[in-house]
């Protein structure tokens, strides 16, 4: 099939595309659900893909849930899914520190329960989670006690982010041997109704600024999450479809890893943005253009049921 | 006198330079004091400059003190100084909002007592100062109550910086008419003994990331602080000397405003950095090269007493 750019995926083209694909990767927020509501038709689409022998995985930058929490939510919203199909940044960050970085020490964690649990599951100890309000004065902040076993700072979503956490991160990261990992750089976490809350990217940028260093980012569009999945399951990139709602994370990940890409318009990015990238003629911006788009993944259902 | 680049200022050259100068601007931290200790000889140098009829001003990015607090500290450490000679970012931010932006409304302040007091002094009301710990869940953070009179967000040094403050700033700054001001972008605040605490730049970057906007920065190297001072006192840039310890704020401000510049080596920047900029031959980097340097401003004392 000839490569097309930003083509509406409907009718016979759906079956034509699926015949060239073994594996489908779905982003979650804005793609298969919004907040606590499944996108209409999404469970049926994913369950039908599986009954057509497609392998399905859920690939999300959100670090606030463990694999088990995602599997529970997926099941509750009507998706057939198991823990092993979920690749979130909480899980992948723990895998990165354990397998890739071969961390021998503790983590100073700016992050919540899910990150905490995934680190524990791979046997990595951590300090730092929970509230850390400021006390004392400048000299106290500059001399906060450190845990000498900490060999990495991991920054994920943390609603208890505070000035004291920045002060501790500064001191740990002043040692150039201390690893510096960020789960993802999404600047906002969109909620239902158009509202949003600050995303992990804000916290990562603050820590990068104080550390005078860049974090190694685990999440999309960096290829680590796909590598992690591909190495466990023997995925062939050219026969894999990435479905997402963000050009700068999902679609760019697909381009970076040689996957086919499908933009769904139920989340962050608009069709107009994709078309602007396409029409710019800039090679760098073409990486942000999906092969296909749909208004909602529910639009795939007729072809799968036909 | 011919312009020289990065020349040691000593001996007869001190008097030669001072003959061409009416006004001397001093940065504070790392220049005239470190923490709560005056740099040896600094009070005598500044007092002698005044007795030689030079006008002296104190120009600092630090937003944690009001003009009155600075005057008190200066006096306590032996400097002859009055409030009117102090141009800190707490005062200048209030002046900017009042005179330049002609703000008609309240400020959402991420900042401490000094900013709070300087805003009050110019008659600007504000909300937001003090601790703001997280409560509730995502939907609560996305729907935090807003003060409808807030027309500007001001970010300065705030040891109570928290996730909730980011969430509120996001909502205020989603209105494109809401002004967005940062006091300064220093990434760290150096203390005595080589230690440091996170600087306002970390907080400004976090808010810029969530807001998808850049803040208007009041502090050095932006020229607003010098404009503020020059308009009040009728300063002639070419007959003004800026003395500082940072190439990227103090010396760059001097270059940006057409001042003579003197680097003192008792603070952040090293002579080697200045020489690397000089030898790079890059036009952009030449702005970071001081005209002169001294090991400490105490070195100027013999020439002033001679």
UniProtKB/TrEMBL annotation, chains A, B:
One GO MF term: metal ion binding
Binding site for substrate: 220
Keywords, in A-Z order: Carbohydrate metabolism, Hydrolase, Magnesium, Metal-binding
EC number: 3.1.3.21, 3.1.3.48
Positions with a binding annotation for Mg(2+): 27, 29, 245
Reaction equation(s) it catalyzes: O-phospho-L-tyrosyl-[protein] + H2O = L-tyrosyl-[protein] + phosphate; sn-glycerol 3-phosphate + H2O = glycerol + phosphate; sn-glycerol 1-phosphate + H2O = glycerol + phosphate
Free-text comment on the cofactor: Divalent metal ions. Mg(2+) is the most effective.
Highest rank taxon of the organism: Eukaryota
Alphabetical GO biological process terms: glycerol biosynthetic process; glycerophospholipid metabolic process
Keyword Transmembrane helix annotated: no
Subunit structure: Homodimer.
Role: Glycerol-3-phosphate phosphatase hydrolyzing glycerol-3-phosphate into glycerol. Thereby, regulates the cellular levels of glycerol-3-phosphate a metabolic intermediate of glucose, lipid and energy metabolism. Was also shown to have a 2-phosphoglycolate phosphatase activity and a tyrosine-protein phosphatase activity. However, their physiological relevance is unclear. In vitro, also has a phosphatase activity toward ADP, ATP, GDP and GTP.
Family: Belongs to the HAD-like hydrolase superfamily. CbbY/CbbZ/Gph/YieH family.
Protein known as: Glycerol-3-phosphate phosphatase
Natural source organism: Erpetoichthys calabaricus (Rope fish)
């Amino acid at each position: 099939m000839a490569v097309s750019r930003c083509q509406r995926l409907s009718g016979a083209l759906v079956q034509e595309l699926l015949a060239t694909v073994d594996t489908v990767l779905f982003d979650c927020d804005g793609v298969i659900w919004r907040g606590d509501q499944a996108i209409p038709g999404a469970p049926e689409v994913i369950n039908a893909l599986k009954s057509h022998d497609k392998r399905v995985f859920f690939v999300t930058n959100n670090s606030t849930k463990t694999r088990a929490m995602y599997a529970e939510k997926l099941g509750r919203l009507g998706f057939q899914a198991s823990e092993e199909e979920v690749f979130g940044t909480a899980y992948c960050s723990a895998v990165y520190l354990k397998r890739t970085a071969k961390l021998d020490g503790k983590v100073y964690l700016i992050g919540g329960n899910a990150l905490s649990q995934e680190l524990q599951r791979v046997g990595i100890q951590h300090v730092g989670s929970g509230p850390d309000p400021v006390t004392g004065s400048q000299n106290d902040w500059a001399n906060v006690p450190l845990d000498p076993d900490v060999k990495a700072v991991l920054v994920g979503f943390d609603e208890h982010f505070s000035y004291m956490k920045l002060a501790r991160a500064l001191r740990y990261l002043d040692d150039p041997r201390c690893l510096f990992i960020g789960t993802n750089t999404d600047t906002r976490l969109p909620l239902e109704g158009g509202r949003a809350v600050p995303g992990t990217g804000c916290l990562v940028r603050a820590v990068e600024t104080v550390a005078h260093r860049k974090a190694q980012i685990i999440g999309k569009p960096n290829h680590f999450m796909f590598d992690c999945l591909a190495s466990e399951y023997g995925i062939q990139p050219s026969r894999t479809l990435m479905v997402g709602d963000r050009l700068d994370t999902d679609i760019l990940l697909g381009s970076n890893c040689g996957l086919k890409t499908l933009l769904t318009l139920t989340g962050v990015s608009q069709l107009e943005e994709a078309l602007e990238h396409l029409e710019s003629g800039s090679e760098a911006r073409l990486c942000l253009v999906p092969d296909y788009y749909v208004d909602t993944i529910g639009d795939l259902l007729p072809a799968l049921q036909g």
